[in-house]
Amino acid sequence: MARALIVAGGCRGRWLAGVLRERGHSARVTTRARARVDEIEAVGAEAVLADPDVIGSLRGALEHVTLVAWLLGTARGSPAAVSALHAERLEMMLRTTIDTTVRGFLYEAAGRVPAEVLAAGARRVREAGAVTGLPWAIVDADPGDRAAWRSGALAAVAGLLGEGRPALPGSYAPPKSQKS
């Protein structure tokens, strides 16, 4: 059994947590809003009040976590704050996973965040994986295409958890989604 930390408790994070639970895993899902706690717990996940703008608020949630899913491709806020989530905050989170039980990092590289910001975030994840040996996966399917996003996320999680293929550092990134 694996435990995932899903950073962003919106609809995609809750859906992924529910699927993980159905497959015998557990999930912690972050939210900044107390009002979202019940929605997260309704899918069988542990809700964590935390803010990815404050990486320290996520440290305790990393306890006994196997997989981190950074699902912030549709983050809202000022351009500077959103960019920081995919730059400085992402780098801090990747460094924070060193010497923990985390054995995989999933990065969402599509959404309403500017493409160049997401591409730079994906590079950061790949570079961190090369330096630390942390297996990673990139989901680049458009979150607006629910079927493609879900397919990409499930393939990424399966790869990172070694379900059907080995999880080697930097060895896995799901194929680009095909638009129908």
Distance between the termini: 34 Å
Question: How is the main sheet built?
Answer: 6 strands, parallel
The helix/strand class is alpha/beta
How many helix segments? Answer: 6
Biggest sheet: strand arrangement: 3-2-1-4-5-6
**Superfamily (CATH H level) name:** NAD(P)-binding Rossmann-like Domain
Topology as a string of helices (H) and strands (E): EHEHEEHHEHEH
> Using only CA atoms, what is the Rg?
15 Å
Number of extended strands? 6
Unreliably modeled segments: 165-180
**Percent of residues in β-strands:** 15-25%
Helix share of residues? 25-40%
Total domain count: 1
Task: Report the CATH architecture.
Answer: 3-Layer(aba) Sandwich
In short:
The protein is 37% helix and 16% strand. The chain is α/β, with parallel strands linked by helices and 180 residues long. The chain has one domain (3-160): NAD(P)-binding Rossmann-like Domain (Rossmann fold).
Write the layout of secondary structure elements.
Layout: E1 3-7, H1 11-22, E2 26-31, H2 37-42, E3 46-49, E4 67-70, H3 79-85, H4 88-96, E5 104-108, H5 115-132, E6 136-139, H6 146-160
Parallel strand pairs: 1-2, 1-4, 2-3, 4-5, 5-6
Helix pairs in contact: 4-5
